[in-house]
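Justification of computing resources. Each target in the renewal requires a structure prediction run like the one illustrated here; the chain below, 123 residues long, is used simply to show the kind of job we budget for.
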Amino acid sequence: QVQLAESGGASVQAGGSLRLSCAVSGSVYRYYCMAWFRQVVGKEREEVATIDAAGTASYADSVKGRFIISQDNTNYTLSLQMNSLKPEDTGMYYCAAASGAFRCVPGLRYGSWGQGTQVTVSS
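Resulting structure tokens:
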């Protein structure tokens, strides 16, 4: 079992930056896919960025060039650096883990989720 705990959410103005963190604890897996999702009330959850154990990252088109996902395997932390924030980036951001996954692929089932951290971007 993997436990995830997000932090770093806040209210910022458009054009600003935020860094979200996800503390990872519990079982350690050689292979995995970690991801950041976001959700706005009334809309479907959106996959924002993923990274696998090899460090291969991918991004939704809506955040490419603005967000950077990274992992610190020493401190077991997943991060999401968000730059040039836009009002449409507003939402609850969740950290998720698919333990044992060789790669991050579309439709991957994530078995572990954090409680979420709120990001609000005002214009």
